[in-house]
Amino acid sequence: MLKTILAQVKEFKKASILTPIFMILEVLFEMLIPLVMASIIDKGVEAGNIRHILLMGGVMFLMAVGALTTGILGGKYGALASTGFARNLRKAMYTNIQTFSFSNIDKFSTAGLITRLTTDVTNLQNAYQMILRMFTRAPVSLVCAMIMAFIINARLATIYLIAVIFLGTIIVLIMRKATGYFRAVFEKYDDLNASVQENIGAIRVVKAFVREDYETTKFQKACGKVYEMFIKAESMVIMNMPVMQFTVYACILGISWLGAKMIVSSGLTTGELMSLLAYCMNILSSLMMLSMVFVMITMSSASAERIAEVLNETPDIQDPENPVMEVADGSIVFDHVDFSYKKGNSEPVLKDICLSIRSGETIGILGGTGSAKSSLVNLISRLYDVTEGSVLVGGVDVRKYQKEALRNQVSVVLQKNVLFSGTILENLRWGDENATDEECKRACRLACADEFIEKMPEQYNTYIEQGGSNVSGGQKQRLCIARALLKKPKILILDDSTSAVDTATDARIRKAFAEEIPDTTKLIIAQRISSIQNADRIIVMENGKVNGFGTHEELLISNAIYQDVYESQTNGGGDFDEMKGGM
Asked: What is the DSSP string of 258-298?
């Protein structure tokens, strides 16, 4: 895990090395100041030597300036190293996420990935800065102060040694107890982010059903769990402070009492006592800094594990060593295909699928919810890999293609339509970033999107809000279809992508496809038979199997499911699932 995380320091290694160097120099300057102060008191003030006071005062000033300068430089390079480290972590995670297949993404919740990219990285950033600065400064300061104290008076310095052992033991006990709570709290953060994401994404539904109070209660519950876990963790960590204060005051009292007796007996000078008291604060504050570092390390260790999971995740779908770069045509063959979302699952989603589709055909796909229609088409562009058998596109197994080459020729309009913030043209050019304005307009005409775009005040330069919230469901679907057409694919897959479009518009889209892109293989998943009855052939899916495959006329004669759906929809309306519910 550490190797994975620290690999992201990269170009900030220099800053990471300079930070502890400057922190050590700062400590050395600070450790010498009490000795100079003792000399001023013993040889200057008590002896009435003004010259010595001025000379040593000048030396102390220079040491203070040196401590200030090195401290500033340590802070500067520490901030540079930690923020750069955090930037690299986010970039590395985001880049790796882009390589994930759908099966990889399924392992992590969206909220969990967001937490890793934000809260977890921030925790590591803070911990890294504290390690570079405090974790360097505190031990060096502690050791130097202890050495100086023993040089001045070994007998009194023994009090510090006892205090260090006592505080160290207490800190270890506290940290061990708090570690479990900090590990658990970040899992609760995932639930909190999921609640926020779901609420904001579905805010229109929430308001339509007047469920604000319910959502508020759910959010407060998630907040409450984070709060409870933090309270438990912090209630343990906060014990550092009273224990620290008790030890500090006990040391001051012990040093003052024994030191005063030794001054009376001439075993210690006043300046040496003042130096010992200064080192007392250095030693104990160093212990306190160490405890803070341990708290941060404890918190960040859980974050580091979660980040390492994302960085170490290997995409399930990778390019072969010598990939095929060209897709010959839009023919598709399913050769005894079985598919499961989870490897080792005894119940496959698709079972022994055998299909042969010619290039340029229009294929309708019909089936109830859960019949694995989307799963079937997801295998064509290799969004998932088959469990058994093979899928061939253009006569070649999809696992032999370079993923980018294959997906550039298989354009998919997914069931859940997504638009991004930006103008209509910017959204359309996701299909082809080099597409001209005229090519974009032609794609919109094919998708029947031009009729509503040209009525907008800024037409193709109209700004689309995040998620396409300022266009209707049908408009969003048509824009997504136009975007897919700009890829000029050999295979076009519409996964229930005209469900929000009226029947007349749906018919015009299908007619445009037939006339304008006859050589493109078109797979249309639909619930309405009217959307696919003119297809060259139709696949009827049921429980992950092909129940029927033929033309509209052939299925009306030979397939009972298709007959029932057709009669249900032509006589009383309704869709496939409504028919199934009435059977």
From this structure: HHHHHHHTTSS-HHHHHHHHHHHHHHHHHHHHHHHHHHHHH
- For 196, residues 6+ apart whose C-beta sits below 8 A from its C-beta are 111, 219
pLDDT digits (tens, 9 = 90+) for 105-142: 767 767 777 778 887 888 888 888 888 887 777 778 77
CA atoms within 13 A on the CB side of 102: 13
Q: For residue 578, is pLDDT > 50?
A: no
Tokens of 446: 């094919």
Between CA 105 and CA 539, with CA 339 as vertex, the angle to 5 degrees is 115
Helical axes 270-312 vs 240-264, angle rounded to 10°: 160
Query: What is the pLDDT confidence band of residue 579, given thresholds at 50, 70 and 90?
Result: very low
Rounded Cα distance between 144 and 470, Å, is: 65
507-564 pLDDT, tens digit each: 777 777 777 777 888 888 887 777 787 888 888 888 888 888 888 888 888 888 888 8
What is d(CA 85, CA 303) in angstroms, rounded to the nearest whole number? 14
Q: What is the model's pLDDT at position 198?
A: 65
Q: What is the DSSP string of 183-251?
A: HHHHHHHHHHHHHHHHHHHTHHHHHHTT-HHHHHHHHHHHHHHHHHHHHHHHHHHTTHHHHHHHHHHHH
Tokens 């600070």 locate to: 30
Do 443 and 483 contact (CB within 8 A), yes or no?
A: yes
* Strand (E) or helix (H) holding 128: helix 121-152
Task: Give buried/exposed letters for 433-461 (b at 16+ CB in 10 A, else e).
Answer: eebeeebbbbbbbbbbbbebbeeeeeebe
Q: Could you tell me the pTM of the whole model? A: 0.64
DSSP state for residue 350 in the 8-state scheme: E
Report how far residue 400's alpha carbon sits from residue 403's, in angstroms, rounded to the nearest whole number.
9
CB 8 within 8 A of CB 95: no
> Pairing between strand 545-550 and 388-393?
unpaired
Gap between the Cα atoms of 358 and 353, Å rounded: 16
Whether 298 and 370 have beta carbons less than 8 Å apart is answered as no
Six-digit token pair at 267?
A: 């075993």
* Dist CA 583 CA 568 (whole Å): 11
SS3 sequence, 376-431?
HHHCCCCCCCCCEEEEEECCEEHHHECHHHHHHHEEEECCCCCCCCEEHHHHHCCC
Rounded Cα distance between 348 and 81, Å, is 49
Dihedral pair phi/psi, residue 355, rounded to 5°: -140, 150
Distance CA(226)–CA(183), nearest Å, equals 12
542's torsion region: left (phi>0), alpha (psi -120 to 50) or beta?
Answer: beta
